[in-house]
Structure to design on (1359 residues):
């Protein structure tokens, strides 16, 4: 009954609508009804004319997209009639004609999942697919992907579909609908088709869509997509982009191919700058650069030998060369009355903090107010004085801080470190060794000074000297995969007489040197070392560095870790879970793999009562995995907030560190507020971690708000030596490199992740998981692992001879333009500066002059500019 | 003979010849000529290793034109200074206290914040400390009962311990003895010790100490406590009905500050409290009559204690209720107008000197300065705390019983040195905290076991009017002039 009444209502409505129709529409309606009748006529000629006219009516109207086209609307009631008639027709051209029209009508009429549009299309006459308009094509594409999935499962041939796909892709690519084309091809798993259809006008947008969507694809599809993008870039000679994808895939063969495909020296130089920023070790051979001199010049760039020079040029341009003392950073005068009573007696801990602050703040500037002495000062020198204002192992950090101050400047760095090698104090020697490693961080040199100098110390008696040398080698040769080093270091791991701390640092150093290499032998050596540990040693905090060293080997290598993870299941239960979490988090670091994040969150939801520690690395792991892209990052921040509320103490202690990693050198206000709240937590370890993380998120930004927070914390915690130490370190981090540096391991518009940088930060964070025994104990020099991630956050434009070139650039907030039509603006709220300029997190730069052409599409770090041959000076 | 280039620091030495038949030491000597770095300090990098003095060139595979790198300087070798610095962390605890700039906190033993804050306030009186040190175990004379003696000893020991440690101290012994002496502090409520009135604790402790210290037999200052804290009052008791008038003197340990509707400032409250009405039998009228008692200060102590009468017994709720009214108190208190005429005369001269000095400091002419230096917050820090400078006893002070060896004069001006505050709605609940000025001039808030540095301007904000800590007892230290 109800249905009936409904129907009558509808009928009434229709009638009413009929009445509402304008005369024109009424005429059209009648016309169409006539056509439908004629189609069913016996006379083929009449049929043909009717079909033609109907087709004509539909085509002329599909151009409008805002509503259902009128002819389609008026033909709706006749869809069934036409369909029935179609079935009765014999095979002829006319039948195909009718199939075409039915295919179009099915666009609005076909029931969900019937895919009639596709069905009739396949039976139809073929012909130009675009003639029926975008909406039709889009609908068809959707039905194809469904049909494809169905046929795949039923193993039915798909040739006819693929033919259609070809047409559709060609149509989309021609009509600025690259994302649709890519989507369709991904659905039918045949991205290779794309290469035929890209041309110089649309390949950029195609590749942009490909690379961005790769982030959200499960493996191994993402690799496939990036492969295609690489191929397209190479085809259109967009080598820098191709190189970036090659680096993302960590495919050295591709990198090599980029070099061999290009024969323009300045462009190759640009490639070298990109490689240098990524921080990988890469040797050019004759195939890649034929000319010896050219090759040497290129290799020099890859070896980062000019980094120090460029950084100092930036510093001079911004006028921050004047060294800063820790007091300039503390700004105690802004805190009235609260600062501790006059420093009558030196506090070793506070002096140590000052040492670190001094090191971080003056990093790479080559001068400071504590350690380096002006040359005219002939007396024994204040450096010796400051050095000996540190106690025991503090002297190690103090001496090593010289390495930080002279960062990247190998020549004068080694010269200034030399005298410390001859000191009689073993802590000073250890610091000198570590300092040499730090100076050489990211810099390669044919003479291998670090290896030559440190090599002979790794087997010394004194454990502190050994650690200094081993850690120094790890920092200097991070990512180098140096066989010679492996043969020197690996035996220490299985040396029964070596103390635990030496073994732990060896594992870390090997992990760093072979970061992301999946090297079997190193993995074996570390696994054996772990198995050799006694029960009591397994509970030592330093033992946890062994799984970390193992994890670093598989950094970002996803499934490759599985064999080792399997082995780790046989470990003693005290370390098993810890090892498992560390391996998992390292292997999927920077992948954004949602499943792994969920897995790690699952581990965090358990309530432990036996004092297990594996939830710490699990929490860090969430950040490591999720930090890859913006969306996952925001979600991770929210998940961490939940952990904070419901988690156990060991989770709460790790959460601030995880937040610090997610927003490293990127002070987001919401995270800043959370950390600020946690910095007053009743649990002092949570507070310490939060304070450290405040330093990390503000690292190198000079962020005034964080600086203010830390200043207040320094007065709040003035009587708590441990927390004050953390506050000082954080202050040093915020003003790192006087605001010219960043710790962000992501570069090239957040696309690439530098493995060594992430490794450095991860080690430091793992050290912070046990603040009391490591950072506040005698291994505070582990903070220097951050040096691996330190990079100038600059845009330095140079000419083809690597000389700085000052040009105007616009710097603004980056805008996501993926999949947008036309040529949208890529930055917003920009200001115009002249290079060199500083780039903040999320900033993007573009050249504000037509006079030059940048050789890299991404303006970050060193960018070579070429004169624009078409540029004409405007007449005034 | 091959030629190589050698890189040393920023310099590059081109075309250095190597005589491959000679040991490497010869090459090092060549470099010594070029760089001035002695051979034993040269480090030459060859293929990932260092060049040894006796190395054989043929095995090293050095090629023509190869670039070698040399490290080494002729710089002086770093030597540790003869005398290393002394670190705070290495110091024995008592020396760390000096570096810290304030003494330790006291653990709360279960609602003992009233006691802790009292102890912290009194602990800031150095004269009391020295008096206690002189008090010896054996010195107990018969007039003092055993428990008072023990309390005195416990106080002495506690003060000692506070001075020596950096970490908070648990005043177990003191707390036990205090309960023994005054069992009312041992009241239990629901199995825990009850919160008590800090003023009561303060008064009782001072009373005990004055008892035991005055009888120590140490002849020099028979009445230390009186000299330090005692206030001489001279009162005129007057009956309006009969016209009778009498005068009496008394000695009290603290001035009260009455809080009523009109009282906004400490000064007003003090004045208010010095005038009182009492009813007593009038001999002339043969019945009880209303007498008006007006007191004035006749003798000044070194430490003036002011108690804000914030609590009154509220019958309906059966507890000591609190008056939350805001009563300002100054950092510098002048009680000249509360003094008796005799005392005023004695104060004239020292006050003039003080004013002149302050005037000089401000660059003003002394004579133009109006009386009362309240508006002037220049601290005479150099004048205070110099109690034992000259030997000549002062007339003014000797009469008041101030230790005769202190060659100083009272000026009637006092500086705030300690505040005991209460937070909460009744005396037997809430929280007591001591705010004490250190010798360095810094203020420390002693909240049980955690001392927190505070700013001076925040101290005056404890004047009440809200639910924040409010002053209950203020201790002022006399600003004195050397005679």
């Amino acid at each position: 009954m109800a249905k009936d009444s409904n129907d009558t209502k509808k009928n009434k409505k229709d009638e009413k609508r009929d009445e509402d129709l304008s005369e024109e529409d009424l005429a059209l309606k009648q016309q169409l009804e006539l056509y439908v009748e004629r189609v069913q006529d016996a006379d083929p000629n009449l049929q043909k004319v009717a079909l033609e006219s109907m087709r004509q009516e539909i085509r002329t109207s599909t151009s409008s997209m805002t509503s259902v086209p009128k002819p389609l609307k008026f033909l709706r009631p006749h869809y069934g009639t036409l369909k029935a008639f179609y079935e009765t027709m014999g095979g002829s051209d006319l039948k195909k004609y009718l199939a075409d029209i039915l295919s179009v009508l099915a666009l609005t009429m076909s029931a969900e999942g019937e895919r009639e549009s596709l069905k009739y299309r396949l039976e139809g006459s073929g012909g130009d697919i675009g003639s029926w308009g975008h909406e039709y094509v889009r609908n068809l594409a959707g039905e194809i992907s469904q049909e494809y999935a169905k046929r795949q499962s039923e193993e039915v041939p798909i040739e006819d579909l693929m033919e259609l796909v070809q047409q559709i892709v060609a149509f989309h690519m021609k009509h600025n609908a690259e994302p649709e084309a890519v989507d369709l091809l991904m659905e039918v798993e045949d991205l290779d088709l794309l290469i035929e259809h890209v041309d110089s006008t649309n390949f950029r947008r195609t590749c942009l869509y490909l690379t961005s969507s790769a982030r959200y694809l499960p493996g191994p599809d993402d690799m496939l997509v990036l492969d295609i993008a690489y191929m397209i870039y190479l085809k259109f000679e967009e080598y820098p982009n191709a190189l970036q994808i090659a680096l993302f895939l960590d495919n050295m063969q591709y990198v090599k191919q980029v070099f061999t495909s290009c024969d323009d020296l300045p462009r190759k130089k640009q490639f070298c700058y990109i490689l240098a920023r990524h921080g990988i070790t890469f040797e050019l051979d004759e195939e890649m650069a034929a000319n010896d001199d050219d090759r040497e010049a290129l290799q020099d760039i890859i070896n980062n030998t000019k980094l120090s020079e460029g950084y100092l040029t930036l510093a001079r341009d911004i006028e921050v060369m004047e060294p800063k003392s820790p007091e300039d950073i503390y700004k105690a005068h802004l805190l009235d009355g609260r600062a501790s009573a006059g420093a009558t007696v030196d506090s070793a801990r506070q002096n140590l903090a000052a040492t670190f602050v001094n090191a971080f703040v003056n990093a790479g500037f080559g001068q400071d107010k504590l350690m380096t002495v002006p040359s005219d000062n002939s007396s024994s020198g204040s450096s010796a004085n400051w050095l000996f204002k540190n106690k025991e192992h503090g002297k190690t950090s103090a001496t090593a801080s010289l390495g930080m101050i002279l960062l990247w400047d190998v020549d004068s760095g080694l010269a200034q470190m030399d005298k410390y090698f001859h000191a009689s104090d073993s802590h000073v020697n250890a610091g000198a060794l570590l300092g040499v490693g730090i100076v050489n961080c990211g810099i390669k040199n044919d003479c291998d000074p670090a290896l030559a100098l440190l090599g002979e110390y790794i087997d010394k008696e004194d454990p502190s000297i050994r650690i200094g040398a081993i850690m120094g080698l790890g920092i200097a040769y991070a990512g180098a995969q140096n066989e010679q080093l492996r043969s020197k270091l690996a035996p220490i791991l299985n040396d029964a007489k070596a103390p635990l701390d030496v073994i732990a640092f060896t594992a870390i150093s090997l992990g760093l040197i072979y970061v992301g290499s999946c090297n079997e032998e190193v993995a074996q050596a570390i696994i054996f070392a772990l198995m050799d540990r006694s029960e009591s040693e397994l509970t030592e905090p330093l033992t946890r560095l062994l799984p970390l060293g193992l994890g670093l080997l598989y950094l970002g290598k996803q499934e490759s870790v599985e064999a080792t993870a399997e082995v780790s299941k046989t470990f003693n239960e005290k370390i098993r879970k810890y090892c498992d979490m560390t391996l998992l988090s390292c292997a999927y670091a920077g992948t954004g793999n949602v499943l792994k994040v969920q897995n790690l969150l699952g581990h965090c939801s358990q309530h432990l009562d036996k004092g297990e520690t594996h939830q710490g690395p699990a929490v860090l792991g969430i950040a490591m995995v999720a930090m890859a892209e913006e969306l996952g990052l925001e979600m991770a921040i929210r998940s961490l907030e939940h952990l904070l509320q419901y988690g156990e103490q060991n989770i709460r202690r790790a959460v601030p560190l995880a937040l610090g990693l997610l927003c490293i050198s990127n002070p987001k206000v919401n995270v800043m507020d959370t950390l600020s709240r946690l910095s007053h937590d009743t649990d002092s370890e949570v507070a310490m971690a939060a304070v450290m993380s405040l330093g990390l998120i503000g690292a190198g930004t000079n962020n005034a708000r964080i600086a203010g927070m830390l200043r207040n914390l320094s007065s709040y915690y003035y009587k708590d030596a441990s927390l004050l130490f953390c506050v000082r370190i954080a202050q040093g981090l915020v003003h790192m490199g006087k605001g010219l540096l960043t710790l962000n391991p992501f570069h090239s518009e957040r696309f690439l992740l530098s493995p060594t940088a992430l490794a450095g930060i991860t080690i430091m964070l793992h050290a912070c998981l046990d603040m009391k025994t490591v950072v506040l104990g005698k291994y505070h020099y582990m903070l220097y692992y951050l040096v691996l991630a330190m990079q100038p956050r600059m845009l330095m434009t140079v000419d083809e001879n690597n000389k700085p070139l000052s040009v105007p650039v616009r710097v603004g907030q980056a805008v996501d333009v993926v999949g947008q039509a036309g040529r949208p603006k890529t930055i917003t709220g920009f200001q115009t500066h002249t290079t060199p300029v500083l780039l903040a997190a999320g900033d993007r730069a573009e050249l504000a002059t037509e006079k030059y052409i940048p050789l890299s599409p991404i303006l970050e770090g060193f960018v070579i500019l070429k004169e624009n041959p078409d540029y004409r000076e405007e007449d005034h | 003979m091959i030629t190589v280039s050698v890189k040393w620091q920023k310099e590059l030495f081109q075309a250095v010849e190597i005589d491959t038949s000679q040991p490497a030491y010869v090459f090092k000597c060549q470099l010594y000529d070029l760089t001035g770095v002695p051979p034993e300090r040269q480090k030459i990098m060859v293929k990932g290793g260092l060049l040894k003095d006796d190395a054989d060139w043929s095995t090293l595979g050095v090629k023509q034109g190869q670039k070698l790198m040399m490290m080494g300087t002729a710089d002086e070798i770093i030597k540790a200074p003869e005398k290393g610095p002394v670190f705070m962390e290495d110091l024995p605890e008592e020396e760390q206290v000096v570096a810290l700039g304030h003494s330790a906190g006291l653990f709360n033993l279960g609602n003992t914040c009233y006691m802790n804050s009292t102890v912290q306030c009194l602990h800031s009186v150095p004269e009391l400390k020295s008096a206690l040190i002189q008090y010896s175990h054996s010195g107990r004379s018969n007039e003092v009962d055993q428990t008072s003696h023990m309390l005195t000893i416990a106080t002495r020991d506690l003060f000692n311990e506070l001075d020596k440690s950096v970490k908070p101290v648990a005043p177990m012994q003191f707390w036990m003895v205090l309960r023994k002496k005054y069992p009312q502090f041992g009241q239990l409520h629901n199995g825990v010790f009850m919160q008590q009135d800090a003023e009561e604790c303060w008064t009782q402790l001072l009373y005990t100490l004055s008892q035991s210290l005055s009888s120590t037999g140490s002849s020099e200052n028979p009445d230390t406590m009186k000299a330090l804290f005692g206030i001489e009052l001279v009162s005129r008791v007057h009956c309006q009905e009969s016209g009778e008038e009498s005068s009496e003197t008394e000695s009290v340990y603290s001035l009260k500050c009455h809080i009523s509707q009109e009282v906004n400032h400490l000064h007003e409250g003090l004045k208010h409290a010095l005038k009182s009405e009492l009813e007593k039998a009038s001999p002339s009228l043969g019945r009880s009559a209303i007498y008006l008692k007006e007191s004035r200060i006749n003798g000044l102590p070194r430490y003036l204690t002011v108690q804000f009468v914030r609590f009154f017994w509220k019958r309906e709720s059966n507890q000591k209720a609190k008056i939350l009214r805001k009563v300002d108190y100054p950092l510098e208190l002048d009680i000249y107008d509360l003094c008796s005429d005799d005392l005023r005369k004695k104060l004239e001269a020292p006050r003039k000197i003080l004013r002149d000095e302050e005037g000089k400091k401000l660059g003003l002419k002394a004579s133009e300065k109006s009386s009362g230096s309240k508006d002037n917050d220049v601290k005479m820090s150099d004048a205070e705390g110099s109690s034992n400078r000259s030997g000549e006893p002062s007339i003014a002070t000797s009469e008041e019983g101030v230790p005769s060896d202190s060659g100083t004069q009272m000026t009637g001006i006092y500086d705030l040195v300690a505040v005991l505050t209460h937070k909460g709605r009744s005396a037997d609940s809430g929280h007591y905290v001591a705010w004490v000025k250190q010798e360095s001039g810094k203020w420390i808030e002693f909240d049980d076991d955690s001392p927190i540095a505070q700013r001076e301007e925040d101290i005056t904000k404890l004047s009440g009017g809200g639910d924040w800590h409010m002053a209950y007892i203020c201790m002022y230290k006399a600003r004195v002039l050397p005679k």
